Amino acid sequence: MDRQMPDADTIRSAVSLALRAPSVHNTQPWLWRIGDESINLYADRSLHLRHTDPDQRDLVLSCGAALHHMRVALAALGWRSEVHRLPNPVDKDHLASLVLHRHHPNEKDVALAAAIPRRRTDRRHYGAWPVPPQYLSRLAQCAEDEGVVFRVLESRGRFAELITDAAAIHTTDSAYQAELATWSGRHGSPDGVPAHSAPIAEITTEGISARQFAWPALAPAPGTDAASDEAEVVMLTTASDDVLSRLRAGEASSAVMLESTVLGLASCPITEPLEVRSTRDQVQSDVLHDSGVPQIAIRVGWAHINADPLPATPRRPVDDFIRPLGS
After folding, report:
1. Given this model, what pLDDT does residue 1 score?
2. Domains of the chain by residue range
């Protein structure tokens, strides 16, 4: 039996990488509880954004991304994770339990872990180079390995319309706007969306736009042009829409974005049209033609040649996320 536990420093190192996972409005809504024989992921629902994320889809997706980041970090540190998802039916916050086994890291393990601190959510225009089909195949395999369907949106016009419709609904929602203002446009805060990461109203040639955060300060790169943006938009879908499906979709989103980073691609999740019930239903019927439940869209492409590297989005201290199991 090779079941063991890493020492405290190794666990701390893994958590420090896991907390680099993207989360809705950079709320970082997770906790890691450390037991004698397992590492456990819990949702921190005190950070639920009630008006942005009314059914907690984004919160669970965020936790799923952190779970995958943790698996990647542990693998590079010499530990394979045996994952038990939703292990405690009486505790809805307990999303996963990781039982660890000794493991010899391979080249892929190291490359994925090295991508974690380099990955950025890049909401700017992308460059004029198409994403090679073989790269999309690699990203699709990453999602499928997590039990999630990966679809490249061939015709994006209707999806762009639904992004605009969702944004219009949010514009008239004062509670949503207050929540957005609370969690974006920040300077020097360890959570929330920094002003330097939010672009000033950039829209691609097909109308695919990033969420409009409060007080955006990220200027477009010199020479960028919406008409030359050759990014792809991919949708991750599941057969059902329960918590387990959302958690797995979050893991798949992390896998796709980290592999994109390994390949040198920029990436940006798109969730706004899936946060509004009416537009989410229309994405499923009009864009996916009822072939799956849309969980998250991701834009992938080459960063523009003139785009400056984005600074890392701040995170709260690692000690904020670690607790003993049972505390």
Report:
1. 43
2. 8-118+316-324, 133-301
Between the alpha carbon of residue 62 and those of residues 91, 100, 129, the distances in Å are 18, 22, 30
Q: What CATH number labels 8-118+316-324?
A: 3.40.109.10
From residue 41, give the alpha-carbon distance in Å to each of 19, 97, 261, 264: 12, 6, 25, 30
Q: Residue 221: left if φ>0, alpha if ψ -120 to 50, beta else—which one?
A: beta
**Model pLDDT, residue 210:** 80
- Residues 58-68 pLDDT 10s: 999 999 999 99
Structural Rg of the chain based on CA atoms: 19
Query: What is the C-alpha separation between 324 and 131, in angstroms, rounded?
Result: 44
CATH number for the domain whose boundaries are 133-301 = 3.40.109.10
Among 174, 221, 217, smallest CA distance to 198 is for: 217
DSSP letter at 102 equals E
Average pLDDT over residues 195-211: 76
Handedness of CA 243, 249, 195, 212 (dihedral sign): negative
DSSP tag of 80: E
| Residue 32 neighbours by CB distance under 10 Å | 23
Query: Residue 235 pairs with which residues in a beta bridge?
Result: 151, 297
Asked if residues 212 and 111 have their Cβ atoms less than 8 Å apart, the reply is no
Reported as a single tens digit per residue, the pLDDT across 76-90 is: 999 999 999 999 999
Q: How confident is the model at residue 202 (pLDDT cuts 50, 70, 90)?
A: low
Same fold, 8-118+316-324 and 133-301: yes
Helix locations, 33-132, DSSP H: 57-76, 107-115
Integer CA distances (angstroms), 240 to 103, 245, 295, in order = 33, 6, 10
pTM: 0.96
Residue owning tokens 């939010």: 198
Closest CA to 43 of 84, 7, 89, 96: 96
